[in-house]
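Q: Could you fold this chain for me?
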Amino acid sequence: MENSQKGFIPVMLTPFLSNGNIDFPALTQLTEIYLQAGASGLFANCLSSEMFELTDKERIQAIKHVIKVANGAVPVVATGTFGGEIAKQADFVKEVSDAGVEAVIAITSLLANENESDEIFNERVFELLSQTGDIPMGFYECPVPYKRVLKPQQLADFVATGKVIYHKDTCLDLLQIKEKLKLTDGNAFGLYDAYMGHAVKSLKAGASGLSCIQGNYFPELIVWLCDHYSDESLNDEVQAVQQFLIDNMEVMHHVYPVVSKYFLQKRGLNISTFTRRNVGAFTTSEVKGMETLFDDYTSLRNNLNIKVFI
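A: Sure. Below is the predicted structure, expressed as structure tokens.
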């Protein structure tokens, strides 16, 4: 997913009905909102999608639904590894690929246990790449079940195979990101940073874009940042957006994704706050936090003249 223009890849939510089933009409509306906001791609079936709480059948249904709604407007990537023997993981990678995604994403922490070495991990990655033929792949340093961050040279070796075109980085370390970008330069490959604490610096360092949970509150703001991060005439505004993201980091992560679904309700999306994942109680404190965030965002958005669709 290499692109000279910086892009935003939303980590998509899965809307649910009150009975716990996937709410496909809401998923349609949510997908359209991401697209209207200017997303350059979509990451379906990820942690924000509650992928570990979905069945294999539901994972494929949701991926196919997103691809149908996107209708070729942007590429879609989706997770395709959920543990077990490499042969089993490779089979599901093929199923996800057949759904029509641009690349299938492998979860780094599901290819080796936390106490297993990089050598074992590397061996399994190369085995997975071998067993999945010419299917384009990517990595996601998902924090569940634990976070396994790729070392720069590891990522470079995987990208050098020509099969790895995407990486969602969660290392939170700008120096590591710069080294990853240096070692993978010149390949048909994109690194998308999840950490908004250094979003502007990451984009300036050469990251292909951003892929963050903040996009499940205000996707158009993340798109605006990707479009204007290097515009000297808007330096004050860019810094204001960066500081806004830093200041609100904690409130957007607490009892997520319930809080983001509530925020989207306030924006006008017909989505319930139901989640299958146990993230803790959604209390009056979280409600107040979302009310303040909504007001602060509305003010910032108006100052930047950002158009919204809901």
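A (continued): Residues 7-230 form a domain with the TIM Barrel fold (CATH 3.20.20.70).
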